[in-house]
Model the fold of this input.
Amino acid sequence: MLKPVYELENVTLYYKKGKFKANDDISLTIYQGEIIGILGPNGAGKTTLIKQMIGQLAPTRGSVKFRGYEVSRHVKDVIQQIAYYSQETFALSFLKTKEALYFTGRLKGLSKKEAKQQTDAILQRLGMYEYRDKILSKLSGGQRRLISFGTTLIGQASVMILDEPTNELDPLKRKLVWDIIRELNQKGTTIILVTHNILEAEKVVHRVAVVDHGKLLALDHIENLKKRVDQRMRVEIYAQEAAVQKIRDRLKAFGNVEIVEDAKLTMALEKSAVRTVIDIIQDESLNINQYSLLPPSLEDVYSMLQKQRGGE
Amino acid sequence: MRTMNVFTQFFVELVILFRIQIAIVRHQLLWIIAMSAIFPIVTLIFMEFLLGETNPEQLARLIIGNMIFSILLMGMNILGQDISYQKFGGYFTYYSSLPIRKMNFILSLLFYGILTSSPSFIIVFTLGQRIYGVDLHFEWLLLPISFLAIFSVVGIGVLMGFLSPNPQFTNVVAQFLLMFVTFLTPVMIELKDLPVILQWISYVLPTTYVANVLHSMLTVGWTESTLGEVLILIIFSCASYLLISKKIHWRVQ
Done:
């Protein structure tokens, strides 16, 4: 039987003396050894939820339990067992990279030897060993973020809470971070991932909790969530920039057409409409360079849930 | 992961937090010295022209006044702004998500304040004597007393940084407080020369006792009356520590 790590029951949190509800009646259980993604747009209440899980905020109503203990009453015990990666400015920017990792390890209770060994190993794994004597503030934003992520790895906590770990990273470093997350999970680490990078998260997470306007809109395995939209297909269209608006106008009768880049459009289609839409796309007057027909993705689920919420 | 006993844990935590503060100060050392020393040194030099003929007693007061002014500037004004900026920049999330004690975190902030305030204090002490040719009294007891004096002022800076609703507000309060403290306490002039109402206000400010203690220590050395002033400074330091401890929102209380 799966062991619960976190149990959240009816978690509600008000800000501004009750005027603003940041989390609204959220219930979810996170199990040992899983990677759960908490997805949602900016301001959805994801970070607020996480802050209650690490004891920086207490819910106004409901309870947050870690391994059976109420977090707000056992904060120090909880944070001894978890590692938290924050989106906020890294406090150790004036230290050398090796100092930032070593001191964090010592503050997590490692011996001098352990802290030194883990510092070297993490610097090697992150490809930052040659920068070990550099002051963090002299490195690029992405390198600083990577070292900040490294401070989460030191101490080898059994539960990791990562708030947007790939923000500000270039594609290679993002891949490195996702690879490390996968490796840690294979060794048994429970990972709670807060992100709005749905396409990347889809490749690593087992379950997803979609949060918006403080509410939990969905909680399920990715495959189950995708079933909700499996009567749909995703069409991605690459066209000449000048033609984008015209294409959108021609296709809007079949679903919501989004312009995701200057010359790229995407839309979710009912399977029954696919033939008709492809006929329109192949019309030469629309100046379409390339198109792809794809199975539904987590992004489609996310868009559907958002739309449903908007219609409430 | 933790196998140390509570006392060792406490000590290791404190040492590591202090080492982090030393590393931060090391990186900013030139800036700290420049920021903290320029104004008091320039004041010292210009006072020589402005005051004309002065007696050793006035000169000693002038040097001590500038030493206090330098710790007010760094330990209260700049430290308050720095902490406020760090607080609103989210720097403290890093510390509060680690299994460290709130007490140690506060002590490390106070230590940071002492580290940033001490260079100017020492520079003005050394240069002041050279510029005016005055020999101030020195005994080893001066070191812990100077430390206590700085600590009591640093407490105000830390408190101000944490209490302010935003960094802009901290800037305004810091400027106002610097002026207020400089003019309403016997930093540059003797307490008895202030109007009575200002004398009463002076009694509630730690800088009054800092000025008295340092003046006494640097002119005649330790006397029985110094003990009373030192005790008051200890009370101020403890009170500011307790206030900071209460006001810092450190995890769920």
Observations:
- The mean pLDDT of chain B is 83.
